[in-house]
Please model this.
Amino acid sequence: MGRIKEWEELTISDNFLFQKVMQNQRLCKKLIEKLLHIKIKKIIYPTSEMSIEESPTQKGVRLDLYVETDNGVIIDIEMQTTNASSSLLPKRTRYYQSMIDINVLGKGEDYTELKKSYVIFICTFDPFPQNNLKLYTFTNRCHEKDNLDLGDDAVKMFLNSKGKLGKVDKDIDSFLSYIDGKAAEGKFTKDLAAEVERVKQHKETRLEYMTLMMELKEQRREGWNDGWNDGWNDGKKDMIVKLLKANQSLSFISQMSDLPKEKIAEIGKENGIAVNM
Model:
């Protein structure tokens, strides 16, 4: 069981802090522009953590950072720090992509109006071991003919902070090094580091984190470390339920509890909270 980090120990790779930092529109916009090699006028946050409705009876899947550009491109960015679940990441991107499309069509639009969308996972490990790339980009392409792209405007990307191979924008390269714990280099990454420090000085945000962590620590004192395989009593599950009801993302709860997202979703459903993977 991993140790719960104190507020002062949090870094940009911690999901809670990453989400808060990305609420800075200037920095979030710059990250997207550098990563996708596009120019955008502005970004729009439908909510700080998008909840996509799958049906009228379900709350849907929560996305960590969901934004839209002024020209309608949809971008979902997720921080991934749990290497144990790396084999599930490809199918998770497929599911997130489908939920984004369903959300658009649910507003009455025809499928021909589907927007270009990106599902981006920022990983603190290599999601495709032994390939050692800094960036993996996937689109749907023809197996029988090289360079024939399906053209469905659905893109999945995986950033690897441990990667050594492949060319990326120099600011993205510095960003990945910063995610990996290295010193901030270059104006963009230094601006990110400054925003991290600014957020960490914000008393209300610190209190929000400390309140969540206090409850989590209390549950651990009551027997959290008995282990998953030994069975979970109601007190232990209550902690997960509280975090879900507080609209904390699966990534954050997984990082704090060392539990796979699938098990967290299962606990949520057992308690009437529909959390889809």
In short: Residues 48-61, 228-232 have pLDDT under 50 and may be disordered. The CA atoms of residues 153 and 247 lie 30 Å apart.
